[in-house]
Design brief:
The complex is a heterotrimer of chains A (243), B (115) and C (109). With 243 residues, chain A is α+β, with helices and mostly antiparallel strands. Chain A folds into two domains: 98 residues, Beta-grasp domain (Ubiquitin-like (UB roll), Roll); 131 residues, Alpha-helical ferredoxin (Fumarate Reductase Iron-sulfur Protein, Chain B, domain 2). Chain A is built from ten helices and seven strands. In chain A, the strands form two sheets. Chain A has a five-stranded mixed β-sheet. Chain A has a two-stranded antiparallel sheet with strand order 6-7. In chain A, α7 crosses α10 and α8 packs across α10. The radius of gyration of chain A is 21 Å and the shape is elongated. Chain B is mostly helical and 115 residues long. Chain B is 77% helix and 0% strand. The longest helix of chain B is centred in the middle third of the chain and has 29 residues. In chain C, 87% of the residues lie in helices and 0% in strands. Chain C is built from four helices and no strands. Classes of the chains: A alpha+beta (243), B mainly alpha (115), C mainly alpha (109). Chains in contact: A-B, A-C, B-C. Chains A and C meet through α10 of A and α1 and α3 of C.
Chain lengths: 243, 115, 109
Amino acid sequence: MSETSPELTVSLWRGAQQGRYVAYKVPMRASQTVLDVVTFVQRHLDPTLAYRFACRVGVCGSCAMTVNGRPRWTCRTHVSKVSKGGRIEIGPLENLPVIKDLATDMRPFFEKWQQAEGSFVPSKTRHDPIETIAPGSAARMAADAAIECINCGVCYAACDTVRWDASYLGPAALNRAWSLVNDQRDAGGAVRLRAIAGSGGCQLCHSHQSCQEYCPQSLNPTRSIAGLKRRATRAYLSGELKA
Amino acid sequence: MTARLQHRTGVLWIAALVHRLSGLALAIFLPVHFLTLGLAIGGEARLDSFLRWTDAPLVQLSEGGLLFFLLLHLLGGLRLLVLENLDWHDGQKQLATLAAAVSAVVAFIFLARAL
Amino acid sequence: MSLPLYLWQRLTAAVMAPLVLVHVAVIFYASRKGLSAGDILGRTRGSLMWASFYGAFVAAAALHAAIGVRNVLIEWSPLGEGRAGMFSTLFGLLLLVLGLRAVAAVVLP
């Protein structure tokens, strides 16, 4: 290995809600990802660094962090794409409590998922015939467009309405609710409508589309939320939904 | 932890900020506007002397600015009304940019004729 | 923001879109023609049409601005929903009173 191999200067958030950025020198390697860099620091420079990852190939969403101010999956972020003059700044995902260093407490994210009634409510038993769903129907296409969410939290971290209003359920929870609203098998109906149009509901969204911009799965929660707004408006005006 | 603003450079985020700030500017302007119109209660002479004051170039410039804010808020708002009530269309960035461009052009035309 | 408030916000916005365009056209017309206060008041005094037009405009603007200000206060200030609601209601009432007073000033004979 060359004595003068180029180095990255990496600033990592150390601490919890209070803390500071600490700089580390990491050798530059070809095709290096940001996750590689964080892993190098923890294994060779400072074993006390806390961070999360799992699959390291962009299918689980566990490694999401804030890289140079932007929320992204670190295993799918090439250093060469984000490093500015050989420097990168890495912090935990925003809008979530920090447990330690780069690891956040995802509980508020999942609690809001539940609050938005983001779970399938069955309407049939094993004795009923299987529901036939036309894959090309408008509702199924709307559900399919929203269904690939793996709860990574990037959209939640990117959303300024979440930042400014603690009650806001957020793009992921509402996007999931939309996929269920469009699922003809689901019996969540009135309860879910009340949840997505009540406190913290879809009506708070300002359509910044930061969620859509940063979603690693190319989902569009703004579009889903716009659909919820239409649905909630119809339900309210028809008397189906009592606010 | 300090918030980093780097990711808040998207066209649509800026469009939302412009929408909010123009709304605030209009909200501040409106009471002033209503008060000056109320001058007409004092009779047409008072309103007339005020109207003559508004012919001053600096006032015309501010009126151009107000018109700009009004159009920005209106056109941005129309984009949102369509987005929220009709079927989704991609190309929101282009629409937002178009709204800002039209507002600038119309306000410029107003100023060009006034000054 | 509750769903009803959201709906009032959007409804007043939709109502004001055509009203604003007419208003801006009127202003352009008046300034091009160089109308004096006397000219303007001559057309507005005693006019039911202008009274209804601007009365509706003021009411819609007061409600729309109040709800908008409330949202901004909730999101950008440390005030909670209760105090933000209170301030914005007062602001809306101020706009309504000043606005209707101005309308009265130009339409009452």
